[in-house]
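From: lab user (bench 3)
To: helpdesk
Subject: output format question, protein + 2-acetamido-2-deoxy-beta-D-glucopyranose

Hello, I'm new to running complex predictions and I'm not sure whether the block I got back is the full result or only part of it. Here's what I submitted:
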Amino acid sequence: MKFSLGTLVVAASTALPLINAITPDGMLAAPRRGAAVANPSGEFAVYTNTNYSFATGHATTIWEKLNLTSGAITTWTTDSNISEVVFVGPTNTSILYINATNEEGDGGVSLYTADANNLSGATLVASLPAPYQGLKAVATGSGDIHFLVYSRAYPNGTAYNPDTAEEAPSTARIYTSIYVRHWDYWLDETRNGVFGGILAAGNGGHSLRGGMTNYVTGMCNVTCAESPVQPFGGNGDYDISPDGNSVVFLTKNIDLPLANFTSSQVYLVPFNGSRTNARPINKIGAPSVPPAAQGASAAPTFSKDGSKIAYFQMNGIYYESDRNILYVADANPAAFNVTALAGNWDRSPDQLAWSNDGNTIYVAAPDLGRERIFPIPLSAGAGYKPTNITNEGVPALFNTLPNGNILVSDSKIWSSRDVYSVAPNGTVVQTYLQSNLVDRALSGLGPQDVSEFYFSSNSTQIDIQSWIIYPAGFDPNKTYPLCFIVHGGPQGAHFNSWSTRWNFKVWADQGYVVIAPNPTASSGWGQNLTDAVSGHWGDYPYWDLVHAWDYVNSSLPYVDTVRGVAAGASFGGYMMNWIQGHPLGRRFNALVTHDGVTNSLADYASEELWFINHDNAGIFTSPNETSTYYRWNPILYYENWATPHFVVHNDLDFRLPVSEGIMLFNMLQVKGVPSKFLNFPDEGHWVLNRENSLVWHTEIFKWINYYSGLSNATSPY
Ligand SMILES: *[C@@H]1O[C@H](CO)[C@@H](O)[C@H](O)[C@H]1NC(C)=O
Ligand SMILES: *[C@@H]1O[C@H](CO)[C@@H](O)[C@H](O)[C@H]1NC(C)=O
Ligand SMILES: *[C@@H]1O[C@H](CO)[C@@H](O)[C@H](O)[C@H]1NC(C)=O
Ligand SMILES: *[C@@H]1O[C@H](CO)[C@@H](O)[C@H](O)[C@H]1NC(C)=O
Ligand SMILES: *[C@@H]1O[C@H](CO)[C@@H](O)[C@H](O)[C@H]1NC(C)=O
Ligand SMILES: *[C@@H]1O[C@H](CO)[C@@H](O)[C@H](O)[C@H]1NC(C)=O
Ligand SMILES: *[C@@H]1O[C@H](CO)[C@@H](O)[C@H](O)[C@H]1NC(C)=O
Ligand SMILES: *[C@@H]1O[C@H](CO)[C@@H](O)[C@H](O)[C@H]1NC(C)=O
Ligand SMILES: *[C@@H]1O[C@H](CO)[C@@H](O)[C@H](O)[C@H]1NC(C)=O
Ligand SMILES: *[C@@H]1O[C@H](CO)[C@@H](O)[C@H](O)[C@H]1NC(C)=O
Ligand SMILES: *[C@@H]1O[C@H](CO)[C@@H](O)[C@H](O)[C@H]1NC(C)=O
Ligand SMILES: *[C@@H]1O[C@H](CO)[C@@H](O)[C@H](O)[C@H]1NC(C)=O
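Helpdesk reply: Thanks, we reran it on our side. This is the complete output you should expect:
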């Protein structure tokens, strides 16, 4: 069924008239900018900018060029075949790029060298027979270019090209061990592999010399190595040394079964592909490795002189949200000499960039609702306490410029992309882009739309934070219905960042005050708050949310809690279902669950047993009343269900199967609780397609606006 655009726009705008309100279609069509990547001399940076038209149903991507001196932004190229660009080659404007097509038109890609100031003079240097991506490249002393890309590969190491692959006569899938599917794909014989290639310098240009080397496929014990790790790993899972002679990549632990553990290790191998005695830098139990370092690794990155490798690793071998610790190892296969920096720091950094001199590593870590950048010197001992040099926002990428400053691309609740440079001492040197000041759909948005408060609760020892997001034209002498949004994870947070899926400002501008609390489990307030949710899904975070509601009710006179609604996805969806059966459920006029848990006894329908086992504080055994699988099950409180409930659940969400949403809806209907079910057959855990997202917003807003009294519709349907 296809809804006409006109119907949707009318339905979405049934809220009260507002000043400069950001609408779902405005937000969804607005420019989406990639992160700015500077050229080697730091004179300019390039990034993608994608716009969508609901009129034509098409997205258009162009590349923009940012002059880092003048701040001028110009269109660099409108050729959307250019999917990735790396600065490499003889001059500061030499580039290597991936053209997402090739001459054979067989689903492969091609590589071109060019001068950034003369793209029309680009030279084809390699036509590759698979959809490789994740380009990294360096120039060697001889002028050759060594590059890395990744692709799915067959067990024999050959890259897999879905467009040319032979189709089996049957669609059967057969498994003899767990981990049969994950996120939105079924496991087959292919796994990601990192490939290296050489573009040899010749008279006047480069050309591919020899075949591609797959560094990963074929390293198998209990499981086979895979890098980048699907589904979210990208070229941050591997790196090439500045001299082009070495490659680091991470893979999940090959000695452990995939479903039970998050443990992963970083391997250092020669670029030429020999991997005799390949062993991880952080092999569990190796004498040079701290014995506790057994968990997931991330972000292996060479220092700029290539002598060291920095990476993060967690301790917990099956805990995906343990604290990341920053490690530095010598890039020397004879003695890796692994050292932890600021090892006791009670934050969990997850992005890093080396300083030019190799004496400092800049990391970004969740910190009090933002993701802030902190310099950590190589001399930092276990007790070192880093000090942040940025404040608001969540970086998408940051890197050091030749002058030592850091170029940051981030987003905020009020801005989809900001680009600025900051000095190592925390002084903002130059602000290049603030999308809320240039994008029409975002016009009027700013820091004044957001504030925060802390409140005491009874779950842990620390005060809990919550964001407040005000509607357009907010007047503190008026009242606005409460919209209470609970985040997923549960380990995660409501950050000061832009989202195209849960955009607080779009919800607020329907006419709500949005309250977005960060209860027990949230990241950025120390590891204890995160850890405390294990075995406590139904009590600690729930108590925090009750306290948040009480605080809002007693302290924020402009919030009308009587007309309040609540919504959440994933763990937030679980929490909506839990709230439905508990007293807090009676304080809301409507609930919205997006891809949540309805029956926690069915948790093992997920492939992420590491997560299920950790969060339930143990594996699934007989489900008696002391088991967390049993105790925190929302359906135990079915007799209390009464609040009108909107249910979204998508077919391709393999960790939280669609049956959870269908069951929730069926149970609500049988009980006679007003309810509505929205399903997207082509979406997974997240609704990504903009046309689908517009329907998602329209239908949910119709529901909550009816029950909060914001719309004058005569029915919620
Ligand atoms: C940046 O702008 C300045 C001032 O207009 C100009 O002199 C310089 O050439 C520009 N740099 C680039 C890389 O375009
Ligand atoms: C990309 O490759 C196609 C051939 O597959 C070619 O026609 C086109 O000009 C290339 N574009 C760029 C920017 O390299
Ligand atoms: C690897 O396996 C695939 C799939 O079976 C096959 O198409 C390809 O030719 C093989 N490559 C080599 C080098 O044998
Ligand atoms: C393979 O894994 C087992 C543990 O399951 C381990 O004992 C053994 O040492 C591993 N083999 C190699 C070559 O790492
Ligand atoms: C992996 O998890 C399954 C299910 O809980 C369990 O049966 C199996 O023993 C686990 N394997 C290991 C090595 O922990
Ligand atoms: C290991 O690294 C530490 C810290 O950088 C250094 O003090 C020590 O000398 C190194 N050890 C070896 C054997 O290189
Ligand atoms: C560091 O974070 C604090 C909040 O903890 C903030 O007030 C301060 O402005 C930040 N410092 C810089 C240099 O941005
Ligand atoms: C911080 O760095 C900026 C930019 O390099 C410089 O202008 C400023 O003087 C420095 N401030 C302090 C307090 O050192
Ligand atoms: C709110 O009301 C107070 C007291 O009546 C008044 O002083 C103030 O100007 C009002 N604020 C706004 C934004 O209208
Ligand atoms: C975290 O909890 C442990 C155990 O309860 C406690 O010893 C420690 O002091 C706590 N750490 C912080 C930073 O609160
Ligand atoms: C904590 O507060 C919640 C919400 O008010 C309440 O239901 C719960 O019983 C309290 N827990 C304890 C241990 O007092
Ligand atoms: C009840 O469940 C707990 C936790 O899963 C388990 O440790 C215990 O053995 C079970 N008791 C019985 C009687 O099955």
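A quick orientation on your result: Residues 1-18 have pLDDT under 50 and may be disordered. Let us know if anything else is unclear.
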